[in-house]
Amino acid sequence: MTDATNQDFIRSSAKHWDRAVRTPEPVRASKETRLTPKRLPAGVRLLGPVLVLLAWEAASRLGYLSPATLAAPSTALKTGYEMFADGSLLPHLLASAGRAYAGLFLGIVVGVVLALLAGLTRSGEALIDGLVQVKRAVPTLALIPLVIIWLGIGEAMKIFLIFTAVLVPVYINTHAALRSIDIGHVELARTLGLTRSEFVRHVALPGALPGFFVALRLAVALCWTALVVLELINTQTGIGYLMNRARDWGQTEIIVVGIIIYAVLGLVSDAIVRAIETRALSYRRALGS
C-alpha cells in the first residue's frame, strides 16, 4: 500500500471510531427520558374522588344509605347552593378561610426563618432544632387547654394553634433541604467570595426550594385539618360552627356541605401549591433533572 492509501485508510478508520464513540450518548439519554414517569394531569387525579361520589350517590338513590344517616351528594350540593344564594354560607366560609390562611402564613414565615437560622448556623441549630423536635412530639390538640388559658377562646387561640401545626413540617423539610445542599455549590460560593446574604439568596434558598414545596403541601393540609377541630370549640362563625349546629338538629345534608367545602378548599390549595412548584422548579426540567 502506498503512503497516500495508508493515510486515507487511517482517516476513514478515525471517522468510524469517532462516530461509534459518540453515538451511544444520545441513545442513553433517550432511554432515561422514556423511563422518567410523567406527572398526571390534574383532571386524572380527581378520578378517585369522582368515583367515590358516584358510588355514594348510587347507594343513596338505591336506598342503601338513609338520609338520616348520610345525605346524598346531590342533596348536599342543592343545600349548599341554597345556603350560598340566601347569604347564610359566605360569611362562615370567609371566617374559616381567614383563620386557616392567617395561621398558614405565620407558620410558613416563622418556619422558613427558623430553618434558615438552624440550617446555616451552628448556634441556631443548637438553640432551635431541639425545641422544634419537642414540639413535633407534642400533638397540637394537646396544647388546646393551655392555649385557652393563655389566649382565651377567641380568634387568637385558633390562629395560634394552626400556626403551631403548620410550623413543624415547614421547618423540618426546609431544614433537611438546606442541610443536603450540594457541597460543591458551597465550595463554589466560597471561591467566588459571596457574602452571607448573597449565599442565602443565590445558593441556600434555591437549593432548599424542593424541600420547601414538600413542606408547603403538608402545611396546607394540616392547616385545614386543625381548623376542623378548632371550629368546634365555642365558635359563632365558620364552617365548623355550621356543622356543629347541624349535628344538634340532625341535618346531615349541612354536615356533608361542610365536609365538601373543606375537601374542595384543601384540593384547590394543594393545586395552587403544585402550580407554583411547577413554575418555580421549571429550571430542573430544563437541566434534565
TrEMBL record:
Pfam families: BPD_transp_1 (PF00528). It is found in: Cell membrane. Keywords: Cell membrane, Membrane, Transmembrane, Transmembrane helix, Transport. Residues 93-273 form the ABC transmembrane type-1 domain. InterPro entries: MetI-like (IPR000515), MetI-like_sf (IPR035906). Gene3D superfamilies: MetI-like. PANTHER family: ALIPHATIC SULFONATES TRANSPORT PERMEASE PROTEIN SSUC-RELATED, ALKANE SULFONATE ABC TRANSPORTER-RELATED, MEMBRANE SUBUNIT. Belongs to the binding-protein-dependent transport system permease family. This is Sulfonate transport system permease protein.
